[in-house]
Amino acid sequence: MGKIMRIGVFYDGTWFAYVSDFYATAHPRAARIALDGFHDALRWYLHTETGIPLDDCVLHEAHYVRGRIQTPATSFDHVLEIAGITRHDMPLHGGKEKGVDVHFALEAWERATTVPLDCVVLLTGDADFTPLAARLANRGVNVVVPVVDVRTTPDSPPPAWTPRTAAPLRAAATSTPGFDALFAPTDRRDYPLRSPFVRSTEAVASPVGTPRGRRRGTVTGWRTGQPHGFITDTRGGSWFVSRDDLPEDRPVLPAGTPVTFTGSPTPSPGKKYPRAYSIRPE
Q: Are 249 and 194 within 8 A, CB to CB?
């Protein structure tokens, strides 16, 4: 019997949500990433890259780290559970995530060094994780950082936006396959594993950067007298909201108010959070 490759996948939940939104709204595939099928695509990639038999490329564990409200959508929790992903819920303070990066790094380091894991897949684009990737690689761990690498032709202009991976993180990783390259083998008729895509039930008619259907969330931070606050959506993402986007009769919305809104999940250049528009209390 050959060597088993133990694989651990670690999701920066906010960043991966942007990637899934990108494939659903700005990519020709027009479909969201199916987590169990994505895990299979990673196994197939490592099998072909290393020559280790597919059955010996084992997804040992997966972790999803993200700040979230106390009562998030249970449907996504079920998706994580079915895919065998362990949730790590971090608190939100004033609508902002706190401690997510530290928890992500510590969890990946501890699991990689104590299990130990032979391969760690980091689903993030944040340069803050460069030291983590570098130290794991120095210990002999195969560090895979998938990147969104858009190929364009004269007939296909680049998308309006693309989730980016910081250059230092790319440099520190053992390998940086493009998501499209990971997904390409799954289009073959003889591909034996699950599809990495699922058609979204949410409307995806308009491109990213413009409103594309109403979202639901909860006001999680708005101090009296302030001209702005924060909304946390049902997936745990934080959104900036200005008083200018509230109904005329509502100069402020108390924390805990359920709302619907529109907006792109990608922050504008230079901004940390996406902006919510057309806020409506429920």
A: no
